[in-house]
Amino acid sequence: MSLQRLGVRTNNESMQLEAHGTNEFPCAAYEINTANNQNYIVDLHWHEEFEIIYCAKGTLNLRIPSKTYVIEQNDIAILNTNVMHYIICSNDAILQSFVFNSKLITGTSNSSFAKKYIVPLMNCKTFDCYIYHEKNIDLFREAFYSIKDESFAYEFIVRDNLSQILLDLYTQFENKFDSIPSTLNTNTQRIRTMISFIKTNYASPLDVRQISDTVNISQRECLRCFKKTLQISPIQYLIRYRIIKSAELLVDNPTKNIDQIGYECGFETPSYYTQLFKRYYNCTPTEFRNSQKKERNL
């Protein structure tokens, strides 16, 4: 699969660093249009906010720990807070999303909105992601285009519509708030620690033993944890992360030697680097750099 990464700045534990909105209005809207491009990937990340994702066109492959969802046109996916996820967008797809702090809905942490509805939803162990099939579309679209166009009183429209969506979501889970916590949190924490190690040391030679040692588990358990949580092996994740970092360097350092970039990202030979880069991006590093230059000059 040819992949192109959309910029998501994260720390070493994959927590997204961008601020979503402002203190006065803690909500941001995003749109991704992959028209005339290869498939895009929004790399693995998590954040403390809710996220509502609408597939306006094409398909999205949404992956969270232990689960994979195919989001089709007119589907809406809602992610709970602090859920690790990454998204692969098909060619010619349009993704629209809101990322917002719970305070947008509750006002304060002591309000009845928080105590009765939002906090129980956030703490629900069975709610990590929920998919609506062709439901709540009008609410989402009205909110999205009001904030996109900055229409009069868009803040009221966004808060009201997202509140209605979350209230509907609450009704889906209100009988599950007392469910027994799963063991997923252990796997997620392990993954965060191991990924932090990979992101810190990706330029060095790494193997499964070194990765598994960071959380004191066996290599077999490390492989199981990655496969169960992310549907890939730790070495596959390492290689993909190296490729993504090299793509960033190709764009950010347009005059830097390409072979040197490959070496700095952990690839021992230029031919191996080019071979793997082409597998992910469907072009050579040189072609990728040139295409990015053309896009920036448009």
Quick overview of this protein structure:
The protein has 298 residues and is α+β, with helices and mostly antiparallel strands.
Written overview of the protein:
- With 298 residues, the protein is of the alpha+beta class.
- Helix content is 45%, strand content 19%.
- It contains 11 helices and 10 strands.
- It has a 5-stranded mixed sheet. A 5-stranded antiparallel sheet has the order 2-9-4-7-10, with helices on one face.
- A hairpin with a 2-residue loop joins strand 5 and strand 6 (67-72).
- Helix 3 (137-149) packs antiparallel against helix 4 and helix 8 (234-252) packs antiparallel against helix 9.
- The longest helix has 20 residues, at 154-173.
- The protein is globular, with a radius of gyration of 20 Å.
- Mean pLDDT is 86; it is low at 1-6.
Keywords:
single chain; 298 residues; alpha+beta; 5-stranded antiparallel sheet; 11 helices; disordered N terminus
Question: What is the overall number of helices?
Answer: 11
What fraction of the residues are assigned to beta strands by DSSP? 15-25%
Helix content: 40-55%
Radius of gyration: 20 Å
Report the end-to-end length measured between terminal Cα atoms.
27 Å
Q: Mean pLDDT, as a whole number? A: 86
Q: Work out the number of β strands.
A: 10
By secondary-structure content and strand pairing, the structural class works out as alpha+beta
Global geometry? globular
Biggest sheet character:
5 strands, mixed
Q: Low-confidence segments, ≥5 residues, pLDDT <50?
A: 1-6
What is the N-to-C succession of helices and strands? EEEEEEEEEHHEHHHHHHHHH
Strand order of the largest sheet: 1-3-8-5-6
